[in-house]
Amino acid sequence: MKDNSKWSEELELLKSIVEKTELEETTKWGMPVYVCNGQNVLGMVGFKAHVALWFYEGVFLKDEKGVLENAQEGKTKAMRQWRFTSINDMDETLIQSYIQEAIQNAKEGKKHKPEKNKPLNIPEALAKVLQEDQMLGEAFDKLNLTQKREYVELIATAKREATKEARLEKIKPMIIAGKGWNDKYKG
């Protein structure tokens, strides 16, 4: 488990609750992830201001108590997280009911299907550098759609012009090398 002594008591309680289920613990992205039939069901980690228990296919949970929130509004479609700021916020029975529902959903094969054929809207700043540098433009055209979308999102989400410029400079060699922004995380 990620070393986060501020939340060690809360993380240990969550882990003890999950261990009472049939989920198997694995480590992905340097954090504990719990799976059922090879499908990611949930994970947990301590952040600066809270501990999060997230459900990979949380969009299918009923959430009758209204405790779940989108993991990253506007980015994640299926993942939902439950945030805790104190061990006193943790109701084992309630947490267990959400986990059991998530396990049942995994067994039923409920899985969010990503949107297909969404148009690729290249931000003006990226389009400009691709047009100005023929080699870069040709390399970008050779990338697969997922890699292109990664770069489009990276530039589109930059709020400041200076950030866009810095990101553009950083991605140029990666594009020319035929690599996607997130390739470094892929096995």
Would you kindly provide a written description of the structure presented here, covering whatever features stand out?
- Helices cover 39% and strands 17% of the residues.
- The protein is an alpha+beta fold and 187 residues long.
- Strands 1-2-3-4-6-5 form a six-stranded antiparallel β-sheet.
- Helix 3 packs across helix 4 and helix 5 runs antiparallel to helix 6.
- The longest helix is centred in the middle third of the chain and has 16 residues.
- The mean pLDDT is 90.
List keywords for this structure.
187 residues; alpha+beta; six-stranded antiparallel sheet; 6 helices; 6 strands; 39% helix
Strand order of the largest sheet: 1-2-3-4-6-5
Low-confidence stretches: none
> What general outline do the C-alpha atoms trace?
elongated
Portion of residues in helices? 25-40%
Strand proportion, as a percent range, falls in: 15-25%
* Average residue pLDDT: 90
Distance between the termini: 21 Å
The helix-strand sequence is: HEEEEEEHHHHH
The major pleated sheet works out as: 6 strands, antiparallel
Tell how many strands the DSSP assignment holds.
6
Count of alpha and pi helical runs = 6
Alpha-beta classification: alpha+beta
Q: Kindly provide the radius of gyration, computed on alpha-carbon positions and rounded to a whole number of angstroms.
A: 20 Å
Short description:
The protein has 187 residues and is of the alpha+beta class.
Topology of this structure?
Layout: H1 8-18, E1 24-28, E2 31-36, E3 39-46, E4 51-55, E5 68-70, E6 80-84, H2 92-107, H3 124-132, H4 134-142, H5 145-156, H6 161-176
